[in-house]
Amino acid sequence: MEVLKEVACGRTVTVKKVNGQGAVRRRIMDMGITKGTEIYVRKVAPLGDPIEVTVRGYELSLRKADAEMIEVE
Amino acid sequence: MPIKIALAGNPNSGKTTLFNALTGSNQYVGNWPGVTIEKKEGKLRSDTYRDVTIVDLPGIYSLSPYTLEEVVARDYLTGENPDAIINIVDGSNMERNLYLTTQLAELGIPMVIAVNMMDVVEKNGDKINLDKLSEKLGCPVVGISALKRSGIADAAEKAVELAQNKVPMVPRHRFSENIEQALAGIEELLHGKVDEKQMRWTAIKVFERDIKVMERMAFDDALKSRIEDIVSQCENELDDDSESIITNERYLYIASIIKDCYKRKSNVKMTTSDKIDRVLTNRWLALPIFALVMFCVYFISVTTVGTWVTDWTNDVLFGEIIPPAVEGFLSSIGTADWLQSLILDGIVGGVGAVLGFVPQMLVLFLFLAILEDCGYMARVAFIMDRIFRKFGLSGKSFIPILIGSGCGVPGIMASRTIENERDRRMTITVTTFIPCGAKLPIIALISGALFGGAWWVAPSAYFAGIIAIICSGIILKKTKLFSGDPAPFVMELPPYHRPLAGNVLRSMWERAWSFIRKAGTVILLCTIVIWFASNFGIVDGQFTMVEDLDDGFLAKLGSIIAPIFAPLGWGFWEAAVASLTGLVAKESVVGTLGVLYGFAEVAEDGQEIWGLLAASFTALSAYSFLLFNLLCAPCFAAIGAIRREMNSGKWTIFAVGYQTLFAYVVALSVYQLGSLFAGNGFSAGTVVAILAVAFFLYLLLKPSNERKLKAATVSANI
């Protein structure tokens, strides 16, 4: 099992499952990260966190702690 | 018939531009009740329709119960029954934008969809079939460009027509069979309990186990368990939780619409925005560029242009032009001395103190508006998040604190760029810890009088401010007030674009005006009270205007409260009174000490009284005095700004109370422990100081509730 946090920059992955609960999880899904969505990992912030991804044609940033909850393949 | 139309859409969809185009200068800016979120209303600019109000809802991505903006928006939509909704959708980012549309459609309120940025879409060579989109969604769709003002009148007209004809929105979207069955079951149970128009919306929310809706409906236990049966049966069938089921289905539905209505020109090339972003958030260049941008903003708005104009306002306009003119006028009509003094020193001085900040604020807000409008502000949060979130602040907190080192008032006002309410309140509370320009004379005074102008005094003041911010962040983050779910940092990074002059100027003026209006009244009142207290007193049993400050009520009050400061090492009334007048303006601390020690006027750093001060203070008590005055409640202008930004009297009192308490404890600990190390022996004060430090360390180091919660869930999962 791989999570989004571990995906290297420049790779494209597909979402398998969004773990976690409550506000953060809902927010992640509301922003378009749902089962089967393609995510392209664009870059990591200069200080190593958060990361920037492209999803559904726009740029989204999320913290590594939250990216850990997203299972991908 | 008056008509209310709500304007709803994602952040960065051009909503503000559309709102400005629809309403022109006819706007009213306020706050949504009880929260710090701005509420804007305006009259529709139109020759045909007279009484149409446009309500600008907060920019939102969804109607979930988790963020304040979303709750404000949905409470308005379900509670206040607007006559129609204009849903603005960014045509260059349809997929995510339509997600909100699918939710708005379920509310049963007449709705028009305005697809914005049609010009950009065409320029990219993409095609959107608006007719097909309208047919799929079940409501009128208008293509617009808010920027070029095309299609706007058409969209407004359609919305007004729908509102007049009361054509309810009937969503075309059907979820998959299992879900529709469950929803039908829930609707049956809700029958008679919910307004029919809002039935579908409520049923879906109940299916999602929406906390806010469940709370409001207050079902009895029997009904609750029947609903739960329906929901969990559906969850078992689809092997997912209800929230995910709904979200997934919505996006699947949107994908099917996009496939039919949106023709993308296939070549994927790097846009200009991507190229800019590659430089601005580059691993190595991002921080230097950020530092450069911040330096420019600070240099221009605080060091140079802003200060020139502010100094001119303070020293020339409210120093050489207005007061003599007013004085001449008052003398010519023979006004009594006390009234003349009230008007000149109290009111003109007070108003001047407020308005003096305005030019500097205008310059600063101009920059902030540009940074926000062009898309760089989101990157500031992206770059700085890692550092600031450790202290319970947002990456964007950097700007208020930086500006706060020039002047706390615009610093506090700059916190408005922070979206999350908790982060914003925390930032407002800690911003004035950083020494502002007006505190520099106090530093110069103490450093010159007691430390021979030692080099380390000034840096240590800034260091103390930074430490105070960090420690407060860590401590407050763990308190109930600031606890709860951590703010999700799942943030859109919008494409860069050229800032719009209209939006930028409007935003600049709105912020400055809200300060002038709200803070102005508070400051004016407070300055008059302080003026009165220092100039009136009881001499020989008679209530009268006093010659000497020593006889005024303020001096008396100073003597009464002076013992409070005894444990801090400066329990004499001169120091206490000076600290009180610091509330008017921090630089007054020096002036007041000068007057109290018998000089009519002293230099900015109070050189004349250095000798006298050296006799009253010890090095340690002077440093404690300095620390207290740097960290305690800021001046009235800043308190007014806190009040404006917190939008709550309770939160203002909390912030100011916290700052003063924090300052007191720090000054006490430094003085008492310093005395102990200097070999002055053990006293009751030392015990208190040790206890205070121990408690402080406990608060600093105790595990946060969040972490405990996380640990608990992790162990539960195992």
UniProtKB/TrEMBL annotation, chain A:
According to the record, the signal peptide region is none
Alphabetical keyword list: Iron
Name listed for the protein in its UniProt record: Ferrous iron transport protein A
Q: Which GO terms describe its molecular function?
A: transition metal ion binding
Domain (Ferrous iron transporter FeoA-like): residue spans on this chain: 2-73
**PANTHER family reported in the protein's UniProt record:** FE(2+) TRANSPORT PROTEIN A (PTHR42954:SF2)
From TrEMBL, chain B:
Record bears the keyword Phosphoprotein: no
Q: How does it sit in the membrane?
A: Multi-pass membrane protein
Parts of the chain that traverse the membrane: 284-309, 346-371, 391-414, 426-450, 456-476, 515-533, 553-573, 612-639, 651-671, 677-701
- Ranges of residues in domain FeoB-type G: 2-165
Primary localisation category: membrane
* Compartment(s) where it occurs, according to its Swiss-Prot or TrEMBL record: Cell inner membrane; Cell membrane
Keywords in alphabetical order, please: Cell inner membrane, Cell membrane, GTP-binding, Ion transport, Iron, Iron transport, Magnesium, Membrane, Metal-binding, Nucleotide-binding, Transmembrane, Transmembrane helix, Transport
The UniProt GO MF terms for this protein read: ferrous iron transmembrane transporter activity; GTP binding; metal ion binding
> Which Pfam family, just one, is annotated for this protein?
FeoB_C
Q: Record's InterPro entries?
A: Fe2_transport_prot-B, Fe2_transport_prot_B_C, FeoB_Cyto, FeoB_GTPase, G_FEOB_dom, Gate_dom, GTP-bd, P-loop_NTPase
Q: Which residues participate in GTP 4 binding?
A: N116, M117, M118, D119
Annotated GTP 1 binding sites? G9, N10, P11, N12, S13, G14, K15, T16, G34, V35, T36, I37, E38
Question: What task does this protein carry out?
Answer: Probable transporter of a GTP-driven Fe(2+) uptake system.
What's this protein's name?
Ferrous iron transport protein B
What organism is listed for this UniProt entry? Thermoclostridium caenicola
Q: What is the lineage of its organism?
A: Bacteria, Bacillati, Bacillota, Clostridia, Eubacteriales
